[in-house]
Amino acid sequence: MGLLRILGAFGPHTMDLVRFGKGFHTHTATVDQFQWSYLTRPAVDPKSREIVVFLHGLGASKEAWVRVASGLAKNYHVVIPDLPGHGKTTPFDPHINFAADRQARRLHEFFESELYPNNKVHLVGTCMGATIAGVYAAMHPTRVKSLTLLCPWGISMPNVSVTLSDVEDLGKFTLVSPTETTMTTELGESRHRLLSSESMHTPRILQALAISKRGRGNAVLHKVVVDMLAHPTILEDELYKIQAKTMVVWGEQDEVLDVSCLKMIDEKLNITRKEVLVLDKCGHLIQNDKPEECVDVLNKFLADEELSFTSMKESWVRVARGVDKRYKIIIPDLPGQGRTTPLDVMANYSMPSQAQRLHEFLQKEVATDKKIHLVGCSMGGMLAGVYAGLYPDQVKSLTMLCPAGISMPRKSEVLKMLEDSGRNLLLAHTSDDVIEMNQALSHKRFNLPRGIASIVASERKKQLPVLEKIVGDSLGNPTVLEDLLPNIRAKTLVMWGKHDRVLDVSSLEVLQQKITPEAQAQVLLFEDCGHIVQHEKYVECTAAINKFLAGDALIAVKDQA
């Protein structure tokens, strides 16, 4: 089998250091038996303790991350080491064990020696480096502030990748690393095509430089691969120990580690803050194929900002983690959305049908003698209200944020656009439309980088048939919630953004007329806020939910300027 021969020829990044390396400095440090070579880029504020550590992939070196790291916000201190067995970190000893857990221990010793004592770090890794980053986060959960994994090794692969299939079934590669006599330009560039979604024409002089290094380090690189293959699910087995917020990014056209690995990660990585992105037209070398997108998502993720405003379960995490810890919290992806499957274009997504599915789900997940506190926004707010109207005995309290399904005495901007031009921003699936959609959702200007807009648009385009069915079925009865308001008996809290451009706040007039006194409806109207109350006013939203659940009375109409 010849994984080494395929992965050992990661494109040289010498030119990246020349083009993007301004502000980076090279250092060496002797820690235990290793002399580490690493790059740093100091933060603008010398007192900053925000440290981002980048870990390269198999056969690569620290320079592989320079292009992306150079675009990181200047408030971060950047550290990029050559991992043992790679680059200029020595010794090159084929007798060393390079398994991911051993490498994670060495990384910890390096941190203890070279970083601030007990300082949390943001870890970013690709391929082998992502495996080591993940294993480190599992071994030292109190030392990791965030974790970003790009196509990590060490996960079961439900669908075997093209590369591994070739290696295992056809034996068409060997573990012999290229030499000057075997590594032709044609072979080198064919390898790059495997790793990237597009051909990368590497200058001959840089190929020769890489060849020379491969010849000297062949035995060590061989040993690295052997040690990695000895435990092929080493990261998967440790996922349950990870506590840091985590972002996982994969190239949809990755022919080295198939994107189906995400299924295993989604099942076994049980944390409250998890972002998963699949990049179209992208292979295994994400930082090469999509450098601008890498920079955009990293800056957003590290700053704890929403990558975009989504309708998936993760959109509630920021508020939910501030809710009183006495409550058990459940946040599902609704049928047809997120990672709840199947995404069936033939299903009925009307609110009564969705309410029935929600009821079946809750009967399985919640004790039969327990009533629930139900919270929803927009379409989810409509579903929450419909559920409370259809199953009144199951609901202890109801919180709706700008719910759909109620008449609008004054038409919203988005509704006017739909009626006048036929454009429905709810179905946005191009970069421009996604940017416009996010602007419509928010009152304050939301700067969505085009790289992220492209990622979101690509995902929405794939799901467009189901998305069209959901929107069509959900809005098939535009007053479905309004019609059920008289049935709601649970105490009710309604929150709305005064500047909502998607569902006009005038719907509150209808709601207040039709909901019964038994619901004891309380209303909070937020100034300087649009449709996404839980994002723009998450502090106030969390506080209101806590007071409401505790039984405290809220002001009838409250401005939060």
Automatic annotation (TrEMBL):
Molecular function GO labels: catalytic activity
Name of this protein: AB hydrolase-1 domain-containing protein
Domain of life: Eukaryota
Organism of this sequence: Phytophthora kernoviae
PANTHER family: HYDROLASE, PUTATIVE (AFU_ORTHOLOGUE AFUA_2G14860)-RELATED, MONOACYLGLYCEROL LIPASE
Domain AB hydrolase-1: 51-291, 312-537
GO cellular component: membrane
Cross-referenced InterPro entries: AB_hydrolase_1 (IPR000073), AB_hydrolase_fold (IPR029058), AB_hydrolase_sf (IPR050266), Epox_hydrolase-like (IPR000639)
